[in-house]
Design a protein that fits this description.
Order of helices and strands: HHHEEEHEEHHH
Largest sheet: 3 strands, antiparallel
Shape: globular
Structural class: alpha+beta
Strand content: 5-15%
Number of helices: 7
Length: 217
Amino acid sequence: MAKTNSVWYRTETFHFISPKRKMPITFDLLCKIYPFVNFLSSNDIIFWSAITCGHFLLLRASEFTVNGNEPFDPSQHLTLSDVNSHQSPTGEHYWTVRLKQSKTDQQHEGVTLYMSHTNHVICPACAMKSNVTLQQSRPRKPTDSPLFLLEHQQVLTRQHLVTFVSHLLRLVGIDPTAYSGHSFRIGGATSASLAGLKDYEIQMLGCWKSDCYKTYF
């Protein structure tokens, strides 16, 4: 698996203030909020998987959550069948995530993203494994079920996600009003730059068509 396909390549509720520029949810910030995630809670496990997936894969919120006013559509949104676990020839485990469509994918050809282990407590591959194991443990769960399905059969929405993250940010003394669903994508780009990835690698991994991503770091 090519190096550029490693882990780095890749709501806000109605009462939030919307400044022009949102703050990034960076790797360092994930480290700060991690201790406040309750991994005995099914919902927290699912939320954490979505958070790390969005951050490390540089996803737009619309690519891994559902807007609150629209129904879940397995032909567009992420399902259990869109993620798969693999093992490389050298024995390394990694996950693939298949996006059926995105903002820059006008032809709806889809794209496959790669998510590997980080050897760190903040690990999207570990979080995805926990989420998939949880989802598959539920009775009669078809493969076209939502990848991120909360308790009481609630599909993860942008509003659910940002409300949860806002709670975690408050616990570490950070004002959440400067953050939004887009903070995962720009935070992933910022962290990738700090980790040493070149600009063109970040552009490729985030599927940017222009160099607007450079304003994030």
